[in-house]
């Protein structure tokens, strides 16, 4: 007997957001979403100039076959801080890859601070994330990613599965920074000094916009007070921070301190932590 049943498909979530400057106030002028993605109502904890948004994933986690797509567009002079409501969970795969694709356009004079909470990749998860940023001249972008490989609090290690992360930042057809990472889940890779070195958490923070002074790079290095492996690299149009360690708390504290330092030094803004992190 021939079955007419179709294979189970995962979520195909979509989120498209457009921000615009209206008389020195950044407003979310377009919001289109498809489950399980949605965005909370914008709020302004530091005044009308900077719009804060929180993205929700209402399904609670990502499974094999899920496809999540986000498009953010900041029109000229718009200023936005975008984060997520909670850590993202990538469950053990059924053999299919889960994938998230984010495309960001930042126009002249605009600045996006993209600060998602950590991603937890369960042992056996198969996940790929792609981020592409189109940055206009005179625009700024700050983004980070923090990934926990395995539910280490319960002793789980990332011994099977696969993780890929592709990040590209372009300006008028010129690549400013391209970063491609691949981590196959295995005992060897997890413990290798060229892999995770038995440390389940990695993180990357990138700032791209203008030339960064050596003083700023040195300040970022001096803000580190933890025990993990870290590095700060000066880029042609910004700089990069890397982390490999055991603690989400210490990497997030460091990244947050670097971010706040950049806000004061490069954006002439004060300190402002998203309220959803404090819940």
Short summary of the structure?
The chain is mainly beta and 279 residues long.
Q: How is this structure best described in words?
A:
The protein is mainly beta and 279 residues long. It has a domain at 12-200. It contains 3 helices and 17 strands. It has helices spanning 187-191, 214-222, 248-266; strands at residues 12-21, 26-34, 37-39, 50-57, 67-74, 79-84, 88-90, 98-106, 111-115, 119-121, 126-135, 140-149, 162-171, 174-184, 201-208, 229-235, 238-245. The strands form 2 sheets. Strands 3, 4, 6, 7, 9, 10, 12, 15, 16 and 17 form a 10-stranded mixed β-sheet that branches. It has a 7-stranded mixed β-sheet with strand order 2-1-5-8-11-13-14, with no helix packed on it. A hairpin with a 2-residue loop joins strand 13 (162-171) and strand 14 (174-184). Mean pLDDT is 94; it is low at 1-7.
Name the descriptors.
279 residues, mainly beta, ten-stranded mixed beta sheet, seven-stranded mixed beta sheet, 3 helices, 12% helix, globular
């Amino acid at each position: 007997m021939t079955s007419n049943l179709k294979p189970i498909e995962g979520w195909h979530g979509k989120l498209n957001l457009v921000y615009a400057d209206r008389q020195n106030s950044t407003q979310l002028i377009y919001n289109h979403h498809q489950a399980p993605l949605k965005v909370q109502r914008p709020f302004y904890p530091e005044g009308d100039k900077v719009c804060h948004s929180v993205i929700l994933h209402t399904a609670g986690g990502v499974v094999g076959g899920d496809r999540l797509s986000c498009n953010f567009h900041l029109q000229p002079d718009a200023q936005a801080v975008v984060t997520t409501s909670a850590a993202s969970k990538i469950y053990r795969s059924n053999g299919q890859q889960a994938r998230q694709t984010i495309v960001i356009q930042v126009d002249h004079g605009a600045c996006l601070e993209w600060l998602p909470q950590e991603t937890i990749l369960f042992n056996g998860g198969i996940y790929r994330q792609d981020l592409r940023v189109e940055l206009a001249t005179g625009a700024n972008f700050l983004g980070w990613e923090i990934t926990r490989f395995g539910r280490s609090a319960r002793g789980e290690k990332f011994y099977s599965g696969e993780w890929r992360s592709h990040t590209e930042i372009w300006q008028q057809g010129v690549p400013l920074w391209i970063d491609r990472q691949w981590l196959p889940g295995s005992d060897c890779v997890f413990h290798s000094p060229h892999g995770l070195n038995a440390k389940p958490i990695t993180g990357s923070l990138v700032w791209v916009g203008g030339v960064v002074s050596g003083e700023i790079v040195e300040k970022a290095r001096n803000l580190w007070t933890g025990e993990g492996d870290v590095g700060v690299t000066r880029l042609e149009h910004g700089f990069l921070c890397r982390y490999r360690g055991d603690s989400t708390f210490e990497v997030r504290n460091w990244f947050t301190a670097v971010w706040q330092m950049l806000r004061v030094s490069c954006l002439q803004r004060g300190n402002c932590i998203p309220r959803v992190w404090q819940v």
